[in-house]
Amino acid sequence: MGDFQFPKALHDELIRDGRAKPHPAGFPNVVSYYVREPEDVPGAVELFRMNYERLRAREGRRG
What is the pTM of this model? Predict the structure, then answer.
């Protein structure tokens, strides 16, 4: 399982689209992604990439 924190709108979109689940402990703005089969790995990698790129862009704006 991977847990990822996203802004509220993106968090809600990922859950609505079925690309992630709400965090089981109810942490706000955190989604969970379960890797149970090899076929699940690309979805986890996509969420890692999305989060990484979002944070890189944010750091770039800070200077």
Answer: 0.83
